[in-house]
Design brief:
about 160 residues; alpha/beta; Helix Hairpins; Chitinase A, domain 3; 2 domains; 5-stranded mixed beta sheet; two-stranded parallel sheet; 7 strands; elongated
Length: about 160
């Protein structure tokens, strides 16, 4: 399945989380900040008004987050965990043998919004994610990583 390089691959559960966060921002957070700005304005001199400056800064951060979430939704390609235990796909826990470093590594293939490489949650859009997706047990995945070419032999695939 071909994806545009700009696509952000997410599951419908992640999409729902993003939509819920946007609703929360629009219905709760934004009115709170607008109220804080209104209150701070009543204190008069805005140049030395810490409350006003803090509220404006919070507003800027919130608007940035809204833009980021909207951009993700704009480019989102919804992909469900395919649960086809024969091949690596979204949601798979994969035990690989790192041929270069001669060690085993267990990774979980997740969508772009859930990636957490430190905890072995590898984005399906990352070089390693793209390399292992679609592979079967005993096949070798080759990834062009920032540290050079890495090769991983797929030892097992399981879906929780």
């Amino acid at each position: 399945m071909a994806h545009h390089p700009d696509d952000i691959i997410i599951t419908s559960a992640s999409k729902r989380k993003i939509e819920e966060e946007l609703i929360h921002i629009r219905s709760v957070k934004r009115p709170e900040i607008n109220e804080a700005i209104r209150r701070a304005r009543e204190y008069g001199d805005l140049s030395e008004n810490f409350e006003y400056q803090a509220a404006r800064q919070a507003q800027g951060i919130l608007n940035g987050r809204v833009a980021e979430l909207e951009a993700i939704l704009d480019r989102a390609k919804i992909v469900e965990a395919d649960m086809d235990a024969d091949t690596v796909g979204l949601g798979a826990t994969v035990l690989v043998y790192d041929i270069t470093n001669e060690e085993e590594w267990e990774l979980i293939v997740v969508d772009a919004t859930s990636a957490d490489p430190i905890n072995d949650k590898i984005s399906v859009s990352s070089p390693i994610g793209r390399a292992v997706v679609g592979k079967k047990v005993m096949e070798v995945a080759t990834a062009d990583t920032p540290n050079g070419i890495a090769q991983y032999k797929i030892l097992s695939i399981r879906y929780e």
